[in-house]
Amino acid sequence: LGHPGGARSRAAAPPHREEPVEVARASVPDASWTPPWGGDGIPRESSPFISNADTEQDSYYDGKNMALFEEEMDSNPMVSSLLNKLANYTNLTQGVVEHEEAENEEGAKRKTVKNPQMGTFIGVYLPCMQNILGVILFLRLTWIVGTAGVLETFAIVFMCCSCTMLTAISMSAIATNGVVPAGGSYYMISRSLGPEFGGAVGLCFYLGTTFAGSMYILGTIEIFLTYIVPNAAIFAAEKKEDAAEAMLNNMRIYGTCCLLFMALVVFVGVKYVNKLALVFLSCVVLSILATYAGVIKTVIEPPDFPVCLLGNRSLENHDFDKCLKTEVFGNATVSTELWKLFCDSPFLNASCDEYFASNNVSEIQGIPGLLSGVISDNLWSNYGPTGMLVEKKGQPSLPAQDASRDGYLPYVFNDIATSFMLLVGIYFPSVTGIMAGSNRSGDLRDAQRSIPTGTILAIATTSFIYMSCVVLFGACIEGVVLRDKFGDSVKRNLVIGTLAWPSPWVIVIGSFFSCCGAGLQSLTGAPRLLQAIARDGIVPFLQVFGHGKANGEPTWALLLTAGICEIGILIASLDAVAPILSMFFLMCYLFVNLACAVQTLLRTPNWRPRFKFYHWTLSFLGMSLCLSLMFISSWYYALVAMLIAGCIYKYIEYRGAEKEWGDGIRGLSLNAARYALIRLEEAPPHTKNWRPQLLVLLNLDAELGVKHRRLLSFTTQLKAGKGLTIIGSVLEGTYMSKAAEAKRSEQSAMLAEKTKGFCHVVASSNLRDGFSHLIQTAGLGGMKHNSVLMAWPTSWKHTQDSVSRRNFIETVRETTAAHQALLVAKNVDGFPGNQERLEGTIDVWWIVHDGGLLMLLPFLLRQHKVWRKCKMRLFTVAQLDDNSIQMKKDLQMFLYQLRLDAEVEVVEMHERDISAFTYEKTLVMEQRSQMLKQMQLSRTEREREIQSIADESRSSIKRKNRLGNELQLPLDHTRQGEVAEPASAQLIHDRNTKSHATLNDKAGPVPDRVHMTWTKEKLIGERNRQREANVGVRDLFNMKPNQSNVRRMHTAVELNKAIGSKSRGAQLVLLNMPGPPKNKGGDENYMEFLEVLMEGLPRVLLVRGSGREVITIYS
Fold first, then answer.
1. Closest residue by Cα to residue 830 from 731, 697, 713, 940
2. Which residue ranges does UniProt annotate as crossing the membrane (predicted)?
3. Fewer beta carbons under 10 A from the terminal one: N or C of the chain?
């Protein structure tokens, strides 16, 4: 039974093995051994039999004893193969590959991936340090210390650093819970909280990174124009009050040029940015070391940076050298440059400013030193409005009466209104950048160890630097200098530069290159983040940004990033841009903490982080801190950021691609659903909470397509997306062969008709059993259906084996037994679609009260836009002894108490004689029922009976002309039976395998032919049986209708006339559905009664209540 040599075909290989799997030869005795996969990685087709003789083909089983799993090895890899693939795994993701390596290959050749060798220090610690330390430290921290005071600044720094530390702990837990590709926070949030949250927060993080680029570029230009080349300004202010506006315009012009240059560098290639990264990091480290060296030097010899005070006011000293009003040359007293700034002429008798004339000038040291005790003056805050003068506390001063000209004089002012909340927003960007390590996880030797260690150490280091700088700045620098944002009082020197050793230029040049590098890093990272989001396919309108150059460079994403970055540059103020990006980063960190907390609390089996020092309380504390900082820094920016994230979330939910990433929100939904189901009692809800929970019974055609799609439309209109909807269908056959295809068909139909609910497909040996199982088992716990919706079986007259009739009537009986409501839609294909808008009336014919469902259904329908313009009319029937006027009044009051708007009409139906038409219709119905019973005979008997019936009918027609019309129907059905004999015989034969049908059919199946040896006794018995059958057929034409059936038919005919006269033009007629007969022998008559009752009405909904009240007058 073995295969001949080379007989194993590769055509049947599974398609998913695309990469070759290397197998070490050292583990195999024979070096010529070949694995079960070919050199191309395609497994050969395995034989179900193993021959000991064919050693060449089966050698790979030797020593493994894996023959039992031969079938599985075609589709599932062996453990050794799986481990070998994992050993060669590399987590390269979109936008992280060094694109320059692929430029010459044009994407055609496969690159050899080098094993990542970066450790914790180089791969995580230094990149985080470079991203955290930056522009705010050099340009704004001294001003924040002077404005908020040492204590409040320390509180700001502590809050922000605690926020990032708690976020880093949560991020470490997520990053060590499996392999994290280099997608940074976006990847972690989207895979932990789902595509909606991931897309929303990912885009917020992208916007934050982009605005960070704007902030770094503005910082670069501020350093360039203020401290390096002040004369390079294009716009120069002629008056002091215009200087701020001129500076903003200069920032816009130079910022735009700088942005274009940086975007061009990024476009040319990221390798240049990466090569310069070490240079930029060196600048940051040298600047910080120079600052600490300067602090130490102030203890030995404080630097000389005098500050000129007029009274207690700090003066800008770019236009004068000496802090004197007058000076003596020889014996003459002459005015100084300072005098000319406050007086209208250089002469001593000139008219001068009142405050200048009343107060003396004095000079103090701007950097008194670490041991000077100046920290006691800098402990407390000095907040103030825009234009507030920078003044030294404790300095003697005489106030002036007229302060109107102060804005034109060389005083140092507050350029913006300051507050604790504003400073939080400005400072927070200085602690961002903690994601730099997780972004580089693809380059790390051991990411699960390096990311937590490196990130937490970097945050601890930078937190120490910030906190120590706050204390040292307050202890070394004079308060008026700290509050001087641009260093105007120290000859336009960078304030932190005045403290540095050996020269302020160390800090100026270092901070300049640091800002340049950070801006380039932002312009490099943001487009790749956007490209990763676009390639995930969760935001449809971003698809175009997933494309780029041939080497994968995100060109379109870079253009969009540059455009958004330009918006920040046009704002032109570092202090205005910083709170914007604070919002986006805080929101990102908030969701990182939320993701960790959700995963921890849900205890999902896959949540097994290697980083153990986390707890859900820390994550919630970090989340609360992020939310608090958002609203502390700027409540309106926080609301805008949350609105943007909310809109993106809803857009992805509405239009985005379906993604299943095993995220925590799905797990949270599962836990919430389980908790709610356990809490939800299986007992029926209170009347006030009752709503139709529908089980919709759908029929499928031969191609497994949905027959009556408008039934789904009607379900949508009735439910309006609320409550439980289960769409059920039954397949004849086995579950394995058809269920999946049928479920897909149902789901596509539900999607087309906008029906929200669950699909339930049951496979059964026959339809009757299947529908019975559906009614019994659909739903779970307290979330079970209480109503069944189905279409009227229009073919019940034409099917000779009466399957559809029996299915329908048994469904009615089972829903009644289960105390469930039943809704039957006749002419359902004529019901309106969801796009139609109907005007007219919904007529309710209330014959019997069975819980009030008849009155509740029109109200629910009118909530949908299809039926909204329809009015409700309520009809009820009055008998001979009823007071119809009083009935109408009572009914109107009842509807008023139910809060339902409807017109009420009482229809009087008097006792009338039973018409000949009713009598004849009943007779035809009973004859037809009897004829259908006779049609269950065998083929041999049927051939004999047809001739007998024809002869009898001819003689009967001659004798009784009145019965001619009634006889036509049985004759027609007899002929139909004659034509369909083969199919009918097959159905009778199949009944042996259908349990439910056999139980419901009292007459057992009869074989097509009787093969037997005839004896005299058997011949006599056969003739007697035929004679009895002939007598039964002959009695068919002499029978009289049952009086009970005549009365029922009379009711159906009269009620149909009344409904037809009143409601023929109605858009929908709702009608009480009478119950089926207790005796199963009258099932055919029951269907006929319902058919007569609904005859001539375009849209009818038969309603049979569950027997319990579903509507109440009480609140």
1. 713
2. 119-141, 153-176, 197-218, 251-270, 277-296, 416-436, 456-482, 502-520, 556-574, 580-602, 614-638
3. C
Please determine, for residue 34, whether its predicted confidence score (pLDDT) is greater than 50. Answer: no
Q: Residue 1006: pLDDT above 50? A: no
Cβ neighbors of 672 (< 8 A, separation 6 or more) are none
CA atoms of 495 and 486, how far apart (whole Å): 7
Residue 357 φ then ψ, to 5°: -70, -30
Structure tokens at 706: 């949905």
Contact indicator for 263, 562 with CB cutoff of 8 Å: yes
Rounded Cα–Cα distance for residues 594 and 392 (Å): 46
CB contact at 8 A, 901 and 872: yes
- Residue 587: closest CA among 218, 186, 192: 186
Nearest to 100 by CA among 450, 552, 533, 495: 552
Does the model's pTM come out above 0.85?
no
Quick count: other Cβ atoms within 10 Å of Cβ 125?
Answer: 21
How far apart CA 428 and CA 160 sit, in angstroms, is 6
Least confident stretch, 477-486, 861-870, 872-881:
872-881
Matching residue, tokens 């676009």: 534
Burial of 737 from C-beta contacts in 10 A (0-12 / 13-18 / 19+)? exposed
The whole-angstrom separation of Cα 664 and Cα 650 is 18
Those residues whose C-beta lies under 8 Å from the C-beta of residue 11, and which sit 6 or more positions away, are 45
CA triple 462-465-470, angle to 5 deg: 130
> CA dihedral defined by 620, 626, 631, 634, rounded to 10 degrees?
-170
* CA distance linking residue 494 with residue 983, whole number of Å: 99
Q: Hunting for tokens 């993106």 — which residue is that?
A: 648
Is there a contact between 212 and 552 (Cβ–Cβ < 8 Å)? no
CA distance readout (Å), 150 to 195, 309, 470, 481: 43, 23, 6, 14
- The runs of H, that is alpha helices, within 176-269 are 184-223, 243-268
Query: Confidence class of residue 118 from pLDDT cuts 50, 70 and 90?
Result: confident
What are the residue ranges of helices labelled H in 336-443?
A: 337-342, 354-358, 420-427, 436-439
CA 304 from centroid of its chain's CA atoms = 61
Reduced DSSP (H G I as helix, E B as strand, rest coil) percent helix, strand, coil of the chain, to 5 = 55, 10, 35
Residue 924: pLDDT band with limits 50, 70, 90: low
| Greatest CA separation for the chain | 168
Closest CA to 436 of 525, 515, 511, 531: 525
